[in-house]
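testing teh design pipeline on a random one, pls ignore if ur not involved
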């Protein structure tokens, strides 16, 4: 520890900082949200390995990490 810090109390300023940002949902998310908006339907992606269907869709399976390549309508 630096000697100049000895005995110095930390000062805290309780404030708020606004940090505007945009989040890119990517190709898979864009396709899902566009269908939801335009067709009022839910669609998911099926994993070719384990058969799980992800809604909202994931590009890769969370269990076996394979690329999900099939869009399926969720009823």
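output:
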């Amino acid at each position: 520890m630096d000697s100049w810090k000895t005995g110095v109390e930390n000062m805290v300023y309780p404030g708020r900082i606004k940090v505007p940002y945009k989040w890119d949902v990517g190709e898979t998310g864009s396709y899902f949200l566009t269908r939801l908006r335009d067709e009022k339907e839910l669609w998911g992606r099926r994993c070719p390995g384990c058969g799980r269907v992800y809604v909202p869709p994931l590009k890769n399976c969370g269990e076996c990490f394979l690329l999900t390549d099939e869009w399926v309508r969720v009823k």
